[in-house]
Each structure stands twice: as structure tokens, then as C-alpha cells.
Amino acid sequence: MAIAQVGSSFPIGVGVRIDAGTGSPEGIVPAVVGALWIQLDGTLGKTLWKKYSGVGATGWTLIDDYVFNVLDFGAKGDNATDDTAAIQAAIDAANALTYGVVFIPCTPSQSYIFTQLKYYPGTHIVGQGFGGTFGGSRGTWLYQKAGTALEMVVPAVNSDLKNRVTIRDIGFSAFQNQASNTGGIRLETSSHALLYNVSVTYTNNYGIQLKQGGTGGEMYNSFVKCTISNQSSGASCFLITSNATQGPDATTISDCHVSVTNATFIKVDGTLGRGGGELAVTNSKFISSASAVAFHQEGTGAQFVGNRFEAIGGGSPSLTVNIVPSFGATSPSVFIGNTWAAPGGLVWNDSQPVRRSHRIAEFTTAGPVNFMPGPETAVVALTYSGSITPNSESEKNTIVATNGTAFTINAPNPRRTGRRLLFDIKNSSGGAMGAITWNAVYLLAGALTNPANTKRRIIEFYDDGTNLIETYRSAADI
């Protein structure tokens, strides 16, 4: 057996000392119970030992080669002791040994108190789910200590590439720290990270942030079966941000559940760059008890498939979708098979100058509103007046004449070359409907006969870039 280098301190953890040297400590390294030792020439290159009993150099036991239990590093999990240093020491040790899973087990109180944790490339932290305290039989909850004005989980070094970070089966809560907490879990310049079955509650800036750092390479990050709840007003549940030249790409949000009050469900912030690209959100549920921004996208195209966005509560809350061009051309997003439910309706703001987002339907009227799979058809009810201007983004325009006032149908604004524009005109005047004057850009095959009282007529045009050419009209009243 090699002679150990007794007393060589290994810089791990805050307030936790780990000595290091060659050779097994058993029989040659005197220490107190609870001491930790890294054997530099261990079976995997480096192995970790802990002194569990005895005096002098006896009582050392090799910790599992791959699992670093935070209880071995002094964590209590008693909902009273500040376990930050112990948990961080386990994370640091796994990084120092370049392998291993950090395990935070369920304890009788099912909760650990902490301030902030820092991860490294390859960090793998696992709990036992987040039941227990909030209704389950078992669980691992980490409660942020009151008065801690810090984010919960952050990289050890900002803007340093953090590959393949995994956090799973853990609940993080600032329940007793709402006045001071600034955020949840931040992944910065991260590639191939996975957050699975993670809960983040009571944060006041963001729940989960994917932040582009200064060195690029942030892509293929996944948030699966995550829960975000009780965010402060104005916070962002999922926040994706860019730097001056790059943004996160290929981000997946799947099977997640968000329950908040007056917060932004998903915000892609491209004010410092090009935003986030290739965002895919599937089979997730987003609920707010007040008006909410369902999606704010600044970046390249996103895909939303099979999700439910819902605003509930008094005062007819509404949902808002903002699609904003940022840092050059922005690819359109795709919305398929989603449900948008809000008493106050859905407000859809697509300000891309050329290519608008593909979607199944568009409504600005009172909800609830459902986006269902099928041909893309946008429907809008035009306000009846003496002068009516349709929008080519709304492929079906309904006009209900409530009196005999003559009216003019102006050229569409904006125009969309290649689009078909349909008018459904109904006479609810109680008598003869007023005359219609069509702008010169509409090339009708002949005068359109006004529908009789309570009846409708339909006429459709094709926009060739210069004129709108009639392609169809109903032969009689409907």
C-alpha cells in the first residue's frame, strides 16, 4: 500500500474539508468521525472515503464509487439546518472526481434548507421526487433560506460551457423567501442539459432560465415533466435569453405544467441578440388565474403542438401572444392542435414584417377559443361602419349589416400576395341593406346582389399582388 499524503487539503465545499492523497486511508490516516478523504490512486483514478466510526486511523469506508449521498457530507435534511455547504460539497466532490451522481434522499422531514447551489459540466443531481410536503408520500424538497436574495441554482462559473447537466426528481421552493428570492434554476451556455420532473415554486423573476453566455454552444436542452407554480406577478416561468450574437437553439419543453397568476408563461427575449431558435413546446398545460402573456417570442420559429393555454378567474382575463421580429429576419412559428381558453379572449400580435406565423385560427373576440387541426383559416368579425378595412391575415371576414347605412370595403391592410380573402356578408338591418362600394383593387365579375333581410352572401378573392380577383360567389342568398 502506498504511503498517503496526510493533510493535503482538497478545495471542496464551503466549510467542508476533504483531504487528499495516494493510498487508502484505512490504517494510515488518523481523523475524526465524519472526515472525508479522496484517494488519488483509487480504482477509478480517484475514489472517496469517509470515516464513520472509531478513533485514529480506523473506521474508514469507501463511499459508493458512483453515488455521492449528501448525508455523507453532513447534510441533515431536517428543515432547520442550513445544508448548503454539505450539498455543495457533494456536488464539488463529484466534479473533482469527474464522475458520479449526487443523491439528495428523502428524509423524515422531507426538506433541506439552502441558499444557492452551483453546478459544473456533467453535474448530475437526483432526488426522490417532490411529493411529501405537498401531498405525496415521499419527496425531496429544497427550501431556500429566508432573506436569500439569490437565484436557486446557477453555474459555478458564468458564461463557461456547461455540458450535459442533469437535475431530476427534486422540488425547489422559495416559499419562505418570496420577498428576497430572485430566480429559480439558471442554465447558462448549456448544451444537452436535462431537467426532468423538477418543481420550481415561489420565485419572483423566473422559474427556469436558459441563458446564452458569451462562448456560444447552447443547444439541445430539454425540460420534461417540470412544474412551475406561484410565480410573482410579472415573472417569466420559462425564460430564454440571448447574447449580442447568439441565442439558444433546439430547446424542448414537454409534458410540463405551469400554474401562476399574471405571469408570462414562456418568454424568448431577443433584445440582446437573435433570441431562441427551434423552440418546441408539446403536450404541456399553462394556467393563469389572471390575464397572462402566453408566449412572447423574439427569435426564429417555434413549434407549439398539443398544448393548453388557459386564463381563469374574475374580470374576464385574456391571453396574449406576441411574435416580435428581432435581430434580422424571424422565421414564422407554427401552432397546431393547441387550446386557447380565456373569458376575455385571445389577443394575437404578430408583427413580423413579411412572413407571419402559421396557425390554425386567429381570434381577437371573446373566448374561449380553440385552435384545432385543419386547413389554416383565420376568421375575424369586422366592425360595421361606413368604411370597413379588412386584414388579409384574416382569410375569412364577416360583416353584419345592422342598419341600412351604405358602406365602403377598402383595400386590405396589410396585403398578402397569394392569399385568398373571403367575405361573409349578412343582412341584419331589419329591411333593405345599404349599398356596398368596393375599392378599385377588387375585380368583381359583376355587381354583387345584396342579401335580403336575415340572409347572407359570400364572395371570395385571390390577391395576385396587384388586384384582388374574384374566384367565387354564392349564387343566391344563404
Structural class: mainly beta
Proportion of residues in extended strands: 35-45%
**Alpha carbon gap, first and last residue:** 97 Å
CATH class categorisation of the largest domain: Mainly Beta
Percent of residues in helical segments? under 10%
Mean pLDDT, as a whole number? 82
Q: What's the CATH H-level superfamily name of the largest domain?
A: Single-stranded right-handed beta-helix, Pectin lyase-like
Helix count equals 1
The domain tally reads 3
Tell me which CATH architecture of the largest domain applies here.
3 Solenoid
**Uncertain regions spanning at least 5 consecutive residues:** 1-15, 360-377
SS elements, strand count: 45
Shape: elongated
CATH-defined fold name of the largest domain: Pectate Lyase C-like
Radius of gyration: 30 Å
Largest sheet: 20 strands, mixed
